[in-house]
Amino acid sequence: EAPRDLQIGSAVWGQRDLLGHDPQDPTAFQQILAAEFGSLTPENDMKWAEIHPEPDVYDFAGADALMAFAQAHGQEVRGHTLLWHSQNPGWVTEAAATWTCDEARDVLEDHVRTVVGRYAGDIYEWDVANELVQDEWDAGGVRLRTEANPFLAACSDDPVALIGDVFRWTHEEDPESVLFLNDYNAEGVNAKTDAYYALAQELLADGVPLHGFGAQGHLSLQYGFDESIQENFERFADLGLKVAVTEADVRMPLGEDGEPTAEQIALQAERYDKMLQACLEVAACTSFTVWGFDDGRSWVPDVFPEGYATIMTEAYEKKPAYDVLLESL
Ligand code: XIL
């Protein structure tokens, strides 16, 4: 059992992994999901493209299946996500070309109130805004992703005002939910998290109901590990915010046989452990979520020339990283 109120969670894609399965006859996947985790995050089901595929069409099937699964097993749910530059439906991208800021605002407000309102009271944390800030190596450097995000692009005169409004609408619809900013490469103290620190201060000074900062925790053994994660979490906690690790996985380049080396396996467990320890050390850390628990469902091989990123193999064999996370607590 996790100490204090720290939730250990997993992402799950309701549409793919829960819908169409008989709850009386759960799959091995579902048994592990129910037994091992106290919190679920919809991997895709609450993203715009899935939940709002046409202007007047909402498709709640995947998200509803996830909520029902969580309820049946006494699990909490982290909502993900309301404002993001990626996985927006075609109609948004097309309409955005001619949007005024008011039009973009109206579309966004209607969506936020509809989605948040539907699940109000049942979502303990929301990743309200996802990946708002560019990386140092992106064109233009560390700054808001204003052009890439159709809503922010339409309101480029004052994107921060729109970001604040999304938090306000979410809070009005679901006053109990803890509302997060969330991003990758946001674990340690770096130029990107400096920008988030400034953004968080600005939003809080404006009275925006911002309550949390989430570090996704998508790591790769190709890169070094930034040891300053605890220090980073502490500075956000000192602003009065909660913090969380929201999408942890630790991927690695694999040899020709597709297998990791013993050294990589040990190093993976160590990286998971370091993220977990930072969360355990900072009282404001509320949740530690893995972005899927089995390699068979991991998003990593689809996107990176890497793999072995989760805590269990495709056959649900426990890796050392599993022991770190689920047996050390
Ligand atoms: C990923 C999903 O895991 C994939 O299934 C999907 O095809 C693309 O998105 N950061 C995020 C997540 O905030 O929403 C992303 O999820 C992974 C990176």
TrEMBL record:
Q: Highest taxon of the source?
A: Bacteria
The keyword Thylakoid appears for this protein: no
Q: What is its EC number?
A: 3.2.1.8
Q: Which SMART domains match?
A: Glyco_10 (SM00633)
| GH10 domain sequence ranges | 22-328
Catalytic activities: Endohydrolysis of (1->4)-beta-D-xylosidic linkages in xylans
Report keywords, A-Z: Carbohydrate metabolism, Glycosidase, Hydrolase, Polysaccharide degradation, Signal, Xylan degradation
Q: Which InterPro entries does this chain map to?
A: GH, GH10, GH10_dom, TAT_signal
Keyword hit for Hydrolase: yes
Family per record? Belongs to the glycosyl hydrolase 10 (cellulase F) family.
Q: What is this protein called?
A: Beta-xylanase
Q: Which organism is it from?
A: Isoptericola haloaureus
